[in-house]
Amino acid sequence: MSVAARPVERAGEVTEVRKARRSAPYLLTIGLVAALVVLSLLSAGIGAYDIPLGDVLASVQHRIGLGGHALDRVGESVLWNVRLPRVTLALLVGGSLGCAGALMQGVFGNPLAEPGVIGISSGAAVGAVASIALGLSFFGNWTVTVCAFVAGLATVLLVYVLSRDGGRTEVVTLILTGIAVNAFAGALIGLFLFFADNAQVTQITFWQLGSLAQATWPKVLAVLPCAAAGLLVAPLYARKLDLLALGERPARHLGVDVERLRMVLVLVVALLTAAAVAVAGIITFVGLLVPHLLRMAAGPGHRFLVPGSALGGAVVLVGADLAARTVAAPAELPLGVLTALFGSPFFFWLLRRTRRRQGGWA
Amino acid sequence: MIGQVGRRLFGVRDRVPPEPVSPGEVLAEAADVRVRLGAREVLKGVTVAARAGEVLALVGPNGAGKSTLLAALAADLPVASGVVRICGRAAEEWPAPELALRRAVLPQSATLSFPFPVEDVVRMGRAPWAGTRLEDSDNRDDKVVREAMAATEVSGFAARPFSALSGGERARVALARVLAQCAPLLLLDEPTAALDLRHQELVLRVCRQRAAAGDAVVVVLHDLGLAAAYADRAVVLDGGAVVADGAPGDVFEDGLLSDVYRQPIEVFPHPRTGAPLIAPLRDA
Predict the structure, then answer these.
(1) Residue A209: its pLDDT value, please?
(2) Which of A34, A280, A295, B157 is the most buried (most CB within 10 A)?
(3) Is B104's CB within 8 Å of A253's CB?
(4) What pLDDT score does A187 carry?
(5) What pLDDT, on a 0 to 100 scale, did the predictor assign at position B3?
């Protein structure tokens, strides 16, 4: 290509900018990992039965055979049967929600897309609630997760078809579709509640608030395959998501098989959302807040944004769960209530900002 | 074996880079192409060819089918009848990744969902080359991106987010991305629409340079003066059909243009260069 019409203007700027932008993701990754480790250890130690940090480390060391020592019977039981499954679950759920949010925003090309806002979490919850209310158990331990996945997948596809017009998704259409889907899902959940017996009602109510209080190792195992599959596959599509930001046709001109990309990612979003909803109920706004903050700090490139949002989501949820358990101790705030309390104002601010930028609700 | 599985998983396959082309070779052609959009037949049996080393201008009034023809040549649209061939192969037979090495498309309006900085947007044009044997080093990408940004004069705001640019600046960044793709077939839909006079000239000079380097450039233009000055060949479309095809000097004559645009038009030679100038006939 012979295109040297003019000398390169400020040639140095290009490389300098690239360097600065390259270092932000590394620093953020290190910071997030550090925060995650610290918060996880704190969360494992703090609670109604306090376990000092040193003891937590010693017990973990002991179990993986690297010295350390076992705690007394109560301490060991609290740490390994209550706290650690809960922290692990918070990691998985938070990571799934953060990653799902980043993916959805990329697929829809719309920064306001999030599993909770556009009704996919509610859709998955309908599946989970139905499996409880109808007493289904065809997949044993995995039944709730599978039902949440199927219902979640159906909802993503529905929202996708309903809110797209001419290859793009407008903010208004997306939000209104979310309202409609949320309302319908709410009605279905209400219907299942109406026909459920008392024990089932208690169990179902837990979904509507969103909580990690019933965390156990079998629950961790029940969502691990979904969450792990989603989290491992998602980063492979980061480059293509970058290209999709140009629009569908330009992405195709650059060699992206757009149809396939979309189907794979919708499937991954459904997997991740199902993993989160099946064990923790509806926890909103994590998938909205985390990718946004990271995009502001490190730019919109998906190669960092997708794995970074998983990491950030895990940090936020472990932190939020710790707060939910300790702020009003001995009572426990529902986790979903807490994230919505902080997430809703943020969502509102985002809406205002989007409107200002686009000069209307386009 | 593991490498193969990995490649399959990551969607990276050995793509065949485009063969070098010789001047005059047909890189894209439409043969008796008909295209329907909804109930309307937008192209009614159009035949054109884009040759290596040549700038081909598509002109005509609004709704004549220029953009549709360009989209058909880009393999964006299914044709109702006739055939579109790109680099000797039917358009629909090309897998998207292979086609991306051969033709680049500049859309009429450039949009971006997220505020990527200008340099990242231009670098997206290099995506088709990732994992090919020609992409020997990161340096080639850097060099091509730098050259494309210099050619379109966007280097000065390489770090600014795309969303903060003016319409004309966005159009040039989009063009830089298309140039960075290094495809031998360039399809540009109104690349000069949002540009000031200086940058209109700049863009068409770039088109000429690419043609001189052996590429085929197809460009939709509204400004007949620009088409006359820079195109090797002009195709005049009206109502979804080709009404003239030839050198601008032969094709642009008063009667034909007045008919096509339904507006009296005069064509006269430039007093100094003799190149055809086209102006609507106005009362003195």
Answers:
(1) 77
(2) A280
(3) yes
(4) 93
(5) 47
Average pLDDT along chain B, 284 residues, taken 10 residues at a time: 48 67 88 91 93 95 93 92 92 91 92 90 91 65 91 92 90 95 94 92 95 94 92 94 92 91 91 88 82
* Shortest distance, CA A237 to any CA of chain B (angstroms): 9
Q: How far is A323 from chain B (nearest CA, A)?
A: 33
Q: Which residues share a beta bridge with B58?
A: B220, B235
Using a CB-CB cut-off of 8 Å, the residues of chain B touching A22 are none
Domain count, chain A: 1
Between 3.40.50.1370, 3.40.630.40, 3.40.50.300, 3.90.230.10, what CATH number should domain B2-102+183-280 receive?
A: 3.40.50.300
| Spatial separation of the C-alpha atoms in residues B180 and A311, rounded to whole Å | 34
pLDDT at residue number A194 = 87
d(CA B229, CA B68): 24
Residues 28-57 of A with CB under 8 A from B: none
* B149 contacts A8? CB cut-off 8 A: yes
CA dist A349 → A333, A342, A345, A357, B200 (Å): 25, 12, 6, 12, 40
Interface test with B, best of A9, A19, A246 (most B CBs within 10 A): A246
Cα separation, B24 vs B211, in Å, equals 11
Judged by CB atoms within 8 Å, which residues 60-99 of B form the interface with A? 74, 76, 95-99
Q: A1, B213: Cβ pair inside 8 Å?
A: yes
Q: In this structure, are residues A305 and A32 in contact, taking their beta carbons and an 8 Å threshold?
A: no
Mean pLDDT over the full length of chain A: 84
- What's the domain range around A231? 58-358
Q: What's the predicted TM-score (pTM) here? A: 0.86
Q: Which of B115, B159, B202 sits opposite A17 (nearest CB)?
A: B159
A92, A286 contact by CB (below 8 A): no
